[in-house]
Design goal:
There is one protein chain. By secondary structure, the chain is mostly helical. It contains nine helices and two strands; from the N terminus they run αααααβαααβα. Helix content is 71%, strand content 2%. It has a two-stranded antiparallel sheet.
């Protein structure tokens, strides 16, 4: 056995979970602390919602936003917050999986496979729901940077990124602040997980 080979090293270290993760599939190839760090980065990117609105061209702001950009409430911020909460909760779940795998003294292969399955669920949750919701929200809100004509094209097709119905609308600054705070918290969580796991 080559002691420099990753698989050999994991066998010598008796790291059952890491061995199972190597065999499980695409969703477990990236180390959990790195996944959590990426989630933190995605959440900090999500905080760009407010700057995107504030920096809209004046004609777009006047036509579609109408009030000071920092105080505007939009329906689309609900989707933004959904993405933020999904990424945050999935990050906490991934941290739980990493800590559980690390704290079981004699982790059986069956337990390792279950944990790998749970890790995959949280990873899919992040990719499919969380990040997709964040990217879609930022992309739709950024449409206004193409000018009034671009926004009108979307509105004519039934997509109004700046619609504010009142009851469902959330202030943009709150959504951005939540994303920023969650992003910092998740980045801190990634550091803590890296320090406490093998």
């Amino acid at each position: 056995m080559d002691p420099n080979d990753d698989a050999t090293r994991l066998v010598l270290e008796d790291d059952t979970y890491a061995l199972v993760r190597r065999r499980y599939g695409v969703s477990t190839w990236v180390p959990i602390p790195r996944k959590i760090r990426w989630c933190g980065g995605a959440l900090l990117v999500a905080a760009a919602l407010l700057p995107i609105i504030v920096l809209l061209p004046a004609p777009v702001r006047e036509t579609y936003v109408g009030q000071p950009a920092s105080q505007v409430s939009l329906d689309i911020t609900l989707v933004h917050l959904l993405g933020v909460f999904c990424v945050t909760l999935a990050s906490i779940g991934l941290a739980g999986v990493a800590l559980r795998a690390n704290n079981i003294a004699d982790l059986t292969e069956e337990q390792a496979w279950k944990l790998a399955g749970i890790e995959t669920i949280f990873t899919a949750f992040i990719a499919v729901i969380g990040v997709l919701a964040i990217v879609a929200t930022l992309a739709l809100v950024a449409v206004g940077h193409g000018g009034v004509d671009t926004v009108e094209t979307f509105v004519d097709r039934g997509i109004d990124p700046y619609r504010a119905s009142g009851s469902a609308a959330v202030p943009v600054w709150i959504s951005s602040l939540v994303a920023f705070v969650c992003g910092l918290g998740v980045l801190g969580l990634s550091v803590a997980v890296k320090r406490t796991t093998r």
